[in-house]
Please model this.
Amino acid sequence: MKNWIQKLLVSTVAVLTLGVITPSHSIWENILEHSGNNKTQLSKQSIDTQNYIDTVYQDDTLNDKTAFSENVLEQAKEQAYMKFGSKIGPKISNEFDHIIFPKIEEAIHMTFENVDQNDMKNLAISEKPSGNYSEKMFHIYNEASGEDVIRFHVRTENRPFDGYYYNFHYHTSTDNFVSHYNLGEIYWSKDTPPKWLS
Model:
């Protein structure tokens, strides 16, 4: 009888955790040793075991999201600097790193908080920022569907008597990319800035 209960519990854990957690035999032996015929104690220990499994699964999910976010942030910075090129990058890097990028980071984290764990595995970052005077820095998109989730852009603005500014902003799929969410601006100069990727 004990062997049957042990096999049932091991199978249940494997199904509930989709094989992520390999059940330790010591947990099951401990449950069976102390349970005897006392169904209440077995039930309580099963609940404790399930709570432990849930906690481990949530920690793994959180760690997966954190690792994924860090990887995406590295790629995001690479794509931004690729867009800036060797002429623009050195001049705006300090302000970008200290003012703009922390806001990009925050926007990415907010986006990922609303993404399901299964969908998270399908997210990727675009690898080709646009050149010339186009706005695209990078997009985060769902590889399975091909649809963008969030788009990060920088627009060159010429303000009469003031000069040129870089306006950093993003768009989200939640409103079909209609709204501009401002991340900040960096002043270039009164001279026409070089083209992106140069």
About this structure: Helices lie at 2-16, 25-35, 39-113, 117-120. The chain is about 55% helix and 20% strand. The beta strands are 123-125, 136-142, 148-159, 163-172, 181-189. The two ends are 74 Å apart (CA to CA).
